[in-house]
Amino acid sequence: MKMGHSISVEDEAVKWFVALKSGDAGPDEQAAFQEWLGIDPQHQAAWLRLESALGAISLAQKTRMPAVDVDRLLKAPSASRRRFLGGGALAVSSLWLGQRIAAELGFMPKSWGGDYWTGVGERKQFQLVDSSVITLNACTSIRLDGARSRSLFVDQGKLLADIALDANLPFVLSTPHGHVSLDAGRIQIDVRREKTRVTTLDSINALAEVKGGRQLLEPGQSLGFDSMAIESQQPSREYTTAWQDGWLEVKNQPLSEVVDQLRPYFNGVITVSAEIAQIGVSGRFSLDDTDKTLDALVQTLPLRVNRRTRFWVLIEPGQVS
Question: What's the Cα-to-Cα distance from 209 to each of 168, 195, 228, 283, 284, rounded to whole Å?
Fold first, then answer.
């Protein structure tokens, strides 16, 4: 069975790492982990990269992972995998993996720099000294700039920023891929390992900057960027911030993207079959009750939810209930 990979498989590997090291993993979880490894060579490669980056445990002794052609896996044709293994990218990925593990476990060591952060299923709101208000989605980590009052760095996750006006100093939100500045207004930042997505709601003079250029953002627009390039602007979805109230609202959005938004609220791994990853989903679903949401999807879409263990859910082709 082919799996969809709309998110980094490293994220699934992190969740398995946390489950296996939690002390609660029994024979069912161990067997499920071995099954997950065998479903897709990318899963094995992701586990090897996690081991290499963190130096946490001996792969052969701790996981009983079957012998694989490591060289073939690690040299598979994926630019993200090559970046993950190369030079300084290894250190960056180690930090990213550490932060992901911390979010899953529910703590953020100071050495990883999270001034404000949320774990699985958590949302938090706080006010900065300039009266700007920041709302963090689940599994999000940010750092404040101690030398500059109107600046913060988003390590990972999603936030909504309601920026107070300061006529003399724009507010700067930085990510691993670039920077976004604005004078005032509301803006949403969504940081994945591959790229950052910015959605402007009613912002004033919003500007995205990366090494490869800059782009002025109009209100009500959305765009993505990595460290070298900025995508074209598209109209933002009117329901894009429903998550702050605990809801996921979508209109003909691919199933893979819908599940991506559920993952920060699920204590475990959700794997989507590639055969159904692009099925369109519309509706309003609870983020705080992922089991209820998965059951609701089964009622309206040709899929089935296979709960292999309490920790691992497979979404596979099926019939509408």
Answer: 20, 13, 9, 34, 34
**Binning pLDDT at 50, 70 and 90, where does residue 267 land?**
confident
Q: Which domain holds residue 94?
A: 9-105
Which token pair is 86? 């190369």
Judge if 132 and 181 occupy the same domain: yes
Helix 41-54 crosses helix 88-105 at what angle (to 10 degrees)? 100
The pTM of the full predicted model, rounded to 2 decimals, is: 0.74
Same domain, 131 and 228: yes
Domain membership of residue 116 (yes or no) is no
**Nearest in space to 195 (alpha carbons), one of 213, 217, 214, 178:** 178
Mean pLDDT of the region 191-204: 91
End position of a domain, from candidates 214, 235, 256: 235
Q: At what angle do helices 9-21 and 27-39 cross, to 10 degrees?
A: 160
Place of tokens 């691993």: 176
Of 78, 105, 132, the domain-final residue? 105
Average pLDDT, the chain: 80
Residue 294, classed as helix, strand or coil, is helix
